[in-house]
Design goal:
- Chain A: Keywords: Ribonucleoprotein, Ribosomal protein.
- With 304 residues, chain A is an alpha/beta fold.
- Chain A has 11 helices and 8 strands.
- In chain A, helix 7 links the parallel strand 4 and strand 5.
- Chain B is an alpha+beta fold.
- Among the domains of chain B are: 111 residues, no CATH class; 114 residues, Ribosomal Protein S5, domain 2.
- Chain B has 12 helices and 5 strands.
- Chain B has a 5-stranded mixed beta sheet.
- Chain B is elongated and about 155 Å long.
- The chains are: A alpha/beta (304), B alpha+beta (340).
- Chains A and B meet through helix 1, helix 2, helix 3, helix 7 and strand 5 of A and helix 2 and helix 6 of B.
Chain lengths: 304, 340
């Protein structure tokens, strides 16, 4: 009840053109610098305060047209890494490098099973070979697309505070039959479903997901173990101190970096969205086919 | 050797394969019943195990996001410190942990409850900014969202510990109570109605004064400047237990105590007082009536309240008779000290 109400109430809030944040901040600062800094009492004073700021902003907007051709839309903004990820076909090695995916952990902590994915060592740190990462990321994206195209359920797991908005956004992007876990994965979610979700839910609903994507596998060993027990395929970001065999489709990359997680989760979520669209198309085709069959069946006895 | 093994295997039909290998031929007679796919869980937070709670948190975070962007568009965020001071503080009364648990149908721990409260307080901050700046649409919409989480008896909760406002009945009478020592007085005060000049007065008010006599023929009298018409002076009637003040309190000190609030407020002649007093002695009763009258005047004429407060007439004197103690003749009086 509350969810839909909140969305209805605030969906219609003014969403006018966004302004560049740093210039806006300086505009606000300038507009309030010279003022006497008296507390605002009447409605008029508040309105004047807003109008003054708006004046400065409009001045800046006016002269912006005469300056550089860079706009908010065609320049990189920090929020683009979360809100505008590249498609799986558009991921490049330089994008991975820019997000810092090639930084592994200390050389002494390197897992010997990670050797195939390590490029080398620099300054005591294992450098991850992105020539392996990129095709493995694309493979993982294909898996996600395939699972979604067959109507499977996907779970994004990222249990750090900085990963929380990432998994939420990724789940929102895929849209249907997708879930996210931003806080602790409770042990027994899959292996103790009756106690966790109740007998009715465990029987009537599909509790065991069809794919689990882990953005930080090390603190989520319980989740990995449960997925193995319940035969759930897993995709995970594997750092150099982790054995890549714990997940089914490892993506060797830096698991501590927020930008890397945003990039990888974004790519996988776009693949998931494509898969959901394919599933929708397939269902529509099937529906048309069954309708035609029914019509033919109805017509056949008439003819006879 | 192999032939023997095969014969043994053939004999023992109930052999289980370690790899669960099923020979293809045995599958020919199996009928595959297409199962209807099971329903998938609704909430995207299903696998957290606390779907209801996290759904709520996500909804509130979304509301915060939208409100923040709206306020930024309206140039109301971020606010400099001197503007933030002009926003009045918020009085929010959120549901208790039990109340929220009931509402969400999900068990809430203290940390989860505090997290929800943090989000609600932040949203309330934004609502107050919008309200003070006059953005009523946004403020009302955010208030609608917050209303779900507010306690039902919010006003009662906020008014707890505060004095109840004095109510007037249909005739404009106030009813107040005053206490002093062991006495309690119930005081009704009603404004004195001034008589209209046309209607002849049949009340016990004073007769209008005669016009002042002309003492000396001055310039003003020569100019024909007549004195002003006499002002109507009303008087306060005080009845205590249906007895007039002068009869009830023979001592002038007690009478003075009763009338003092009216004198300090400058409202002598403005209100008629009727009091019922019980308990204690003269001092206690007069003090109780005084407090009742002061409260009544503060209710009728709120401007007079600071005057009465400064004169300490609105304070219930807490001094009560001290009890007698064992080993002493009275509360403090000790028995004569004897050396042996």
């Amino acid at each position: 009840m509350s969810l839909s109400r909140v969305r209805l109430c605030l969906a219609a809030v003014a969403r006018s053109s966004r302004r560049t944040p740093c210039i806006a901040a300086s505009a606000r600062h300038l507009s309030t610098l010279e003022a006497e800094k008296k507390p605002l009492e009447t409605q008029e004073e508040w309105t004047n305060f807003q109008l003054k700021r708006e004046e400065y902003q409009s001045l800046i907007d006016y002269f912006s047209a005469y300056g550089s051709t860079q706009t908010r839309n065609n320049t990189f903004q920090p929020h683009h890494s979360l809100h505008r990820p590249p498609a799986p076909s558009n991921v490049t090695l330089s994008a991975l490098m820019a997000s810092g995916a090639h930084f592994g952990h200390s050389q002494s902590l390197m897992n010997p099973n990670f050797m195939p994915y390590a490029y080398g060592v620099r300054a005591g740190i294992t450098v991850i070979d992105l020539d392996h990462t990129l095709p493995l990321l694309r493979r993982a994206a294909n898996v996600v697309r395939g699972v979604a195209a067959k109507g499977g359920t996907i779970v994004f797991v990222g249990t750090r505070p900085d990963l929380r908005p990432i998994v939420r956004k990724a789940a929102e992007r895929v849209g249907e039959r997708v879930y996210h876990v931003g806080e602790k994965w409770l042990p027994g979610t899959l292996t103790n479903k009756i106690v966790m979700f109740g007998a009715e839910a465990a029987k009537s609903e599909q509790v065991v997901p069809d794919l689990v994507i882990l953005l930080n596998p090390i603190p989520n060993v319980h989740a990995i173990r449960e997925c193995a027990i319940e035969h759930v395929p897993t995709i995970g970001i594997i750092d150099s101190n982790v054995d890549p065999r714990i997940v089914m489709y490892p993506i060797p990359a830096n698991d501590e970096n927020t930008r890397t997680a945003e990039l990888i989760a974004g790519v996988l979520s776009i693949a998931g969205r494509e898969g959901v669209a394919l599933y929708g198309e397939e269902r529509a085709k099937r529906a048309i086919r069954t309708e035609r069959l029914q019509r033919n069946r109805e017509q056949m006895p008439e003819r006879r | 050797m192999n032939v023997a093994k095969r014969m043994v295997n053939a004999a023992v039909r109930s052999r289980s394969y370690a790899t669960m290998y099923v020979p293809p031929a045995s599958l020919e007679n199996v009928v595959v019943r297409r199962q209807t796919p099971k329903r998938t869980p609704e909430s995207p937070n299903f696998y957290t195990g606390r779907a209801a709670y996290f759904d709520q948190v996500n909804a509130l975070e979304l509301a915060l996001q939208h409100t923040r962007s709206a306020l930024q568009t309206l140039q109301l965020l971020p606010l400099p410190s001197f503007v933030r001071e002009s926003i009045p503080p918020g009085h929010h009364v959120w549901l208790t942990k039990l109340g929220l648990t009931e509402m969400l149908n999900a068990p809430l721990t203290t940390s989860r409850y505090r997290r929800l409260l943090g989000l609600l307080n932040q949203l309330d901050n934004y609502r107050r900014i919008a309200e003070v700046a006059g953005v009523e649409g946004l403020a009302s919409r955010v208030a609608d969202v917050l209303e779900i989480f507010e306690r039902e008896n919010k006003e009662a909760f906020l008014a707890r510990g505060k004095r109840k406002p004095v109510e007037f009945d249909e005739y404009g009478r106030s009813y107040t109570v005053g206490r002093r020592k062991e006495s309690a007085a119930r005081v009704w005060a009603i404004a004195v109605q001034k008589q209209t000049p046309d209607a002849p007065s049949a009340s016990t008010e004073d007769q209008p004064l005669d016009p002042l006599p002309q003492l000396t023929p001055t310039i003003t009298s020569a100019m024909g400047d007549s004195p002003l018409p006499p002002t109507e002076i009303t008087s306060t009637n005080v009845l205590i237990n249906n007895i007039p003040l002068s009869q009830f309190f023979p001592l002038p000190a007690d009478r003075e105590r009763v009338v003092r609030p009216l004198k300090i407020a400058g409202l002598v002649g403005a209100y008629n007082i009727f009091a019922l007093v019980r308990g204690g002695g003269t001092t206690g009763q007069s003090g109780a009536i005084s407090l009742g009258i002061a409260k009544a005047l503060a209710a009728h004429v709120p401007d007079v309240e600071p005057l009465l407060r400064r004169a300490k007439l609105l304070r219930r004197d807490p001094r009560m008779a001290e009890r007698k103690k064992t080993g002493r003749a009275k509360a403090r009086k000790a028995y004569t000290w004897v050396k042996r």
